[in-house]
Design brief:
heterodimer, A: 222 residues, alpha/beta, Arc Repressor Mutant, subunit A, 2 domains, five-stranded parallel β-sheet, 8 helices, 11 strands, 40% helix, elongated, B: 360 residues, alpha+beta, Heat Shock Protein 90, three-stranded antiparallel β-sheet
Chain lengths: 222, 360
């Protein structure tokens, strides 16, 4: 899951980014509204953590522009004001959820995961594919009931593959969803991570390479 | 204000004084006319003189009666704008400062007085608005750095693995607790600024809110060994349910915080014989002299040490919310010790029980 943090308070943005990376999110930061719009146009985000009072382009304006656009990222608005009018205002403009500053970091993470699930209505809270179970909230993976220890990047890649439920995911798509903008598109980071993920999951190999297209989870295992 | 009205000397209204003045003038004019007639008729004979006197006196009486009536009516007409002005000004409070008299009619003294009042309302309105705006801005400016500190600390606690020395984790946790308490104070200050601004107005039962909030503080009360008794009778009030809940929460927290261990709290709601709703919260605690009780609603006044908890704004918020709802809030010493806090809300009149309206 890839998230854009649009927040002008540099320290806050940095702390959220570090915290989200700990939770195996791919997270980028935009320090103002114009930069946020630019990054949204270039990258495919699942969600935006949007500060309402952004410089250059106001958070409300970003909401307005994204609302109704097909495939637009979901918006979790951060607002410092807590009056009823403010809260209702943000939601009316098209925000999908809001949190009042100061918030609990754990709550931010839980709400982002819930938003992501809302985006793909068929997505159950716990993903299961064959004998692999992936719990996004606890960030745990089990194979045949046995706990599998994964790095954050490996976890993100597995989550993207499992969300596709057997559909083929290209290497570019994996790079887009599981890495943030610091990733170099010409490295073989995806290949390396998939290979280490296979090793951790063990035999029989649950990930299938579709030559020239990408990767997918093998279906129909029990 | 009400007291000065009560002690003011009773007197004639301006309308009556004006009417009396005009009538007196007319009577004087009539009498002068009679005197003139008296001088000119010195030479005339008796019977004619008598007749003339009777006609003259009769005319004076009729003129006086007509004059009294006319001047009373005219004065009433002229003073009508003043009565309206009085009515409107009396009803204006913090929530209706956008009221304007916009008096029509001739450009006279009363019109100019009304214009002056309109100007005053406009100035008050902008002063209140900038006060509320200031509070909102200040709160925003404080909330963002507080949010930053909180997130930095929470993420740092998550990042710190087993290798982190325990005292570093403890430092993070203490800083986090301090940020929490600063956040509470900031929120309370904002509540105080918004205390004068109900967002939604509707009819609610005080007993229901009190029952819920009493359960919410029962853990804290139990931890201190407090005995809580409740006598909750239906008590209908009209106002912003969120603000009324804040009022109840602050009263109950105050009763728990400023109590002895193993003390008592008595909570009662009900409707007075005249239909007004009442909430009484009594708690044991320190013996407080009257002059200190009077200071309890002052911001940041603490009857005891800082360490006794709370942000020092609880009763100030209660008092502000009570004012907004035209409720009477009184604090008195409880016997033998502690405090009695009584809030009496105005009667809910049936004709105004329309569904919630937004008055922002």
């Amino acid at each position: 899951m890839r998230v854009l943090i649009a927040e002008d308070e540099v320290f806050l943005a940095d702390a959220i980014q570090r915290g989200l990376r700990l939770e195996a999110f791919a997270a980028d930061v935009a320090a103002d509204g114009a930069e946020a719009l630019e990054k949204i146009a270039v990258n495919d985000y699942d969600a935006i953590v949007l500060d309402r009072d952004l410089p250059l382009v106001h958070g409300d304006e970003i909401c307005r522009r994204l609302a109704g656009q097909p495939g637009a990222p979901l918006i979790l608005m951060l607002t410092a004001a807590s009056t009823l009018a403010d809260r209702v205002g943000g939601l009316e403009l098209g925000a999908d959820d809001y949190l009042v500053k100061p918030f609990e970091f754990e709550e931010l993470v839980a709400r982002l995961r819930a938003l992501h699930r809302r985006n793909a209505p068929a997505l159950p809270p716990i993903l299961e594919q064959g004998d692999i179970r992936l719990d996004p909230f606890r960030r745990e993976v089990y194979r045949s009931g046995r706990f599998v220890r994964l790095s954050r990047k490996e976890f993100s890649v597995l989550a993207v593959l499992m969300e596709a439920a057997g559909g083929v995911i290209s290497a570019e798509r994996l790079l887009e969803k599981a890495w943030d903008e610091n990733a170099d598109p010409f490295t073989n980071a995806v290949r390396m991570t998939v290979s280490s993920l296979r090793k951790r999951l063990g035999a029989p190999d649950p990930i299938e390479t579709v030559a020239g297209v990408g990767y997918r989870m093998r279906a129909g295992r029990g | 204000m009400a007291e000065s009205q009560r002690t003011r000397r009773a007197g004639l209204s301006i309308r009556n004084r004006l009417a009396l003045t005009y009538t007196a003038l007319l009577v004087c004019t009539g009498l002068a006319m009679i005197a003139a007639v008296n001088v000119t008729v010195q030479v005339m004979n008796g019977a004619l003189i008598d007749l003339l006197y009777q006609v003259a006196i009769g005319t004076v009486l009729v003129i006086a009666a007509l004059g009294a009536l006319a001047s009373w009516l005219v004065a009433g007409r002229m003073l009508r704008p003043l009565r309206r002005l009085n009515q409107v000004v009396r009803q204006v409070d913090e929530t209706s400062l956008d009221t304007r008299l916009r008096l029509s009619g001739p450009d006279d003294e009363i019109r100019s007085l009304a214009d002056t009042f309109d100007m005053l309302f406009a100035q008050l309105e902008s002063a209140f608005r900038s006060r509320s705006l200031f509070a909102a801005n200040a709160s925003h400016e404080l909330r963002t750095p507080l949010a930053t500190m909180k997130t930095i600390l929470q993420v740092a606690l998550r990042e710190s693995g087993d290798a982190t020395p325990p005292h570093t984790r403890e430092t993070f946790q203490r800083l986090l607790a301090t940020v929490e308490s600063m956040t509470e104070t900031t929120t309370a200050l904002l509540d105080l600024a918004h205390g004068g601004r109900p967002e939604v107005v509707e009819e609610t039962d005080l007993a229901g809110i009190v029952a819920e909030e009493a359960s919410a503080v029962s853990d804290q009360a139990e931890a201190r060994g407090l005995t809580v008794t409740r006598a909750l009778e239906p008590a209908s009030v009209r106002g912003d349910p969120r603000l009324i809940r804040d009022l109840v929460v602050n009263l109950l927290r105050n009763a728990v915080t400023h109590n002895h261990d193993h003390g008592v709290i008595d909570i009662a709601t009900g409707t007075l014989p005249d239909g007004r709703a009442q909430l009484v919260v009594q708690n044991s605690g320190d013996i407080l002299p009257a002059e200190r009780i009077a200071l309890l609603t002052e911001p940041f006044y603490r009857a005891r040490l800082r360490t006794s908890g709370g942000h020092g704004l609880g009763l100030t918020i209660v008092s502000a919310i009570a004012d907004t709802h035209h409720a009477e809030f009184t604090l008195a010493a409880r016997l033998p010790d502690g405090l009695t806090a009584t809030t009496v809300f105005p009667r809910v009149s049936s004709d105004r029980s329309a569904p919630g309206r937004l008055v922002v």
